[in-house]
Amino acid sequence: PKISTNADFEDGSHEVVAGAKIVDEVTYEGLVPEKEYTLKAELISKADGKTVLGKGEKTFTPKKSEGKEPVTITVNDDVTEPVEAAVAFEELTSTEVNKDGKDTPDTTPEKPNHVAEHKDI
After folding, report:
1. Residue 12's pLDDT is what?
2. What's the pLDDT at 121?
3. CA distance linking residue 39 with residue 42, whole number of Å
4. CB-CB contact of 43 with 28 (8 Å)
5. Which residues, listed in sequence order, are joined to residue 96 by a DSSP beta bridge?
6. Partners of 59 in the beta sheet?
7. Where is the T-Q ester bond containing domain (predicted)?
């Protein structure tokens, strides 16, 4: 499976600062239809490539193996000064199937299967 992303501000937000919302539209392919997946998104500062500015999470069950799923990222309250450049990182996990699409009945939510990620600065 693989994922790619296109992040944009939600209506009313126009800069990366506390409380702003960014909608990260994740395009996926190679998933198993009717199995549950979780997308975890982090907004990362481009300045150092590691400071987490905000987070979002969405659990979904795709009808087809490819499609799009929006994840809303809310900027952390401690981001008091607007950030010039940020990038969204995503990780796709599942407790129902592994990256090869095989069922994994013994997997727990605390240790889900890593299915795919997108972490390009």
Report:
1. 80
2. 79
3. 10
4. no
5. none
6. 38
7. 1-121
Number of separate domains in the chain: 1
Token code pair at residue 84: 């010039």
Q: How many CA atoms lie within 13 A of 30 on its CB side?
A: 13
Between CA 71 and CA 28 the distance in angstroms is 13
Q: Are 13 and 22 in contact (CB under 8 A)?
A: yes
pTM over 0.85: yes
Residues in a beta bridge with 28: 3, 67
User: Over the Cα atoms of the chain, what is R_g?
Assistant: 15
Residue-wise DSSP of 74-118: EEPTT--S-BS-EEEEEEEEESSB-TTS-B-TT--TTSPEEEEEE
Tokens of 20: 């702003």
Residue 41 sits in which domain range? 2-118
**How many Å apart are CA 69 and CA 38, to the nearest integer?**
10
The segments of the chain whose pLDDT lies below 50 read: none
Q: What is the CATH number of the domain that holds 111?
A: 2.60.40.3930
